[in-house]
Write a structure and sequence with these properties.
alpha/beta; four-stranded mixed beta sheet; 3 helices
């Protein structure tokens, strides 16, 4: 194992590259429509059980695969409730306008809002995502 660890430490290029994030909703087509409109991304795969959206700059894509037993997570988390394992963080320039657009597309605001510069919304499938106000110190 020592040789294995040394090989990883000496590597100059990564062994893997993140290409897309996949979610498992009951109805991928509904999430495709919502996130295509919210993000302005292109649908690059649209099959009955698999949908993939890609940003115009070629960055990390977003995919949805049918999961017939999907249970939306509870936000905020409560003991015994379905836990959220991942969520989208979407940077916006105008928080109020972005929230208004998300709501018009079918999102609902979460009852619990943890920060002034972030709005937690639930997509049409009930999965939380965050709209957050970017700015000069956004990467800090």
């Amino acid at each position: 194992m020592v040789g294995h660890d040394a090989t990883l430490a000496d590597r100059t290029t990564p062994a893997a590259t993140q290409r897309h994030l996949a979610g498992r909703p009951r109805r991928p087509s509904a999430r495709r429509l919502f996130y295509r409109r919210l993000l302005g991304w292109t649908v690059v795969a649209d099959e009955p059980d698999w949908v993939k959206l890609a940003p115009p700059d070629g960055g990390t894509a977003l995919s949805f695969q049918t999961e017939p037993h999907h249970v939306p997570p509870v936000w905020p988390a409560v003991p015994g409730g379905q836990q959220m394992q991942a969520h989208l963080e979407i940077e916006v320039a105008d928080l109020d306008a972005a929230v208004a657009e998300a709501l018009a597309l079918g999102a609902t605001p979460a009852a619990f809002q943890p920060q002034d510069d972030v709005r937690v919304c639930l997509d049409p499938a009930g999965h939380p995502f965050c709209l957050w106000l970017g700015g000069a110190d956004a990467d800090a």
